[in-house]
Hints:
The protein contains ten helices and 21 strands. With 445 residues, it is of the alpha+beta class. Strand 4 and strand 5 form a beta hairpin. Helix 2 runs parallel beside helix 3 and helix 3 crosses helix 4.
Amino acid sequence: xxxxxxxxxxxxxxxxxxxxxxxxxxxxxxxxQPLLEVATDKADTEIPAPAAGRVTRxxxxxGSVVAKEGLLCQIDEAASEAPGAAEQRPQAAAAASSPAPAPAPAPxxxxxxxxxxxxxSPSTKKLALEAGVDLRGVQGTGExxxxxxxxxxxxxxxAAAEPAPQASAAPSPGIAASQAAELSQLIQSSGGFVPPVPxxxxxxYKVPPYTPKPGDKVVPFSRRRRIxxxxxxxxxxxxxxxxxxxxxxLHETSxxxxxxxxxxxxAGVSLTFLSFICAAAVRALRxxxxxxxxxxxxxxxxxxxxxxxxxxxxxxxxxxxxIKHADELSLRGIARSIxxxxxxxxxxxxxxxxxxxxxxxxxxxxxxxxLFGGAIISQPNVGILRMGEIKKRVVVVTKDKxxxxxxxxxxxxxxxxxxRIIDGVLANSFLxxxxxxxxxxxxxx
Length: 445
């Protein structure tokens, strides 16, 4: 019998939520066949079968939170794929999709079953511990009864948990206020200021309440959108953002791309302008290591590894997987890595490790018209480079001390940086070096 256990889904991920079973008890599975989908705060992951055999027991129901190394299911390797198992499957499927009844509490446990842990994320558990809230007495309003940070904040302030808002209901100011209260507590503990309350106001200013009207549509945040929103608000409050912009003449890089893109295509690799910009950014990071850093409480650390994050648009929203040790790769290696990450992200095959440990980010908003924009830094990075639209423009070309007019492909690059440790001189030097590499077409293809 093979025990299938919850794997380590990332360096900082200690548990996962069983979002969907792809098999049922009694099913015969092949080795590496996906068994279930597990959701974490970082990514959704499929867990494959470690061996071929029959699924004899599903130990974790959909919606349950399972710690690392916790039992998910059991597979009988000795079983053969024989007919007759299908009759048992409807009952097994019902067992897999509904939580198992909780066992009776052990003597001396004060009526609490320590093994029946409430559904909540690690960050929510940490918040509850700090606030002195017993999660076993909190009614969860999230998916599958999951306890959210809002539930903990309401419990901490003695308020009864409210039922989850319906899609047609107006957003509750109390929910926004509790989220801001958590952020405020975090900032105050480090000696910062008290931020405005989203959807409520700040000081004497109050946001007018929302009044539902016919035709309005209230769209609840998806899990990924909620995580993204919290990340962006935290980044803007934590890091003093400064944006600097440079104009890049891509004539030489464009010629190099035209000369080699067919060769790359035959090898199954897309030679895009994004590949060149990522390669230029990696070289500039090695020459300006302070940009490959993160801020600690009273210091900052210059990181050894260069893990370049590349923003990818997926059906579920924007995610930022990273090219690990990007400074050790050639232009072809970077281009191939971008293709592989983008393909896996769009097909839902990205892993928590793919999204972890990014040290700097390049963002490509796409082809649909933008001059430039200042991106929000992806914490805990200290910089992000955002591409603009590539347009043919009239430029002045100097050759042999003579100026002439030409039409070249031109792009604006915008660098957002954390002014806590990056000064303007260093930021300008970094961005100048990126544009210098691109304008000269200084790449080994």
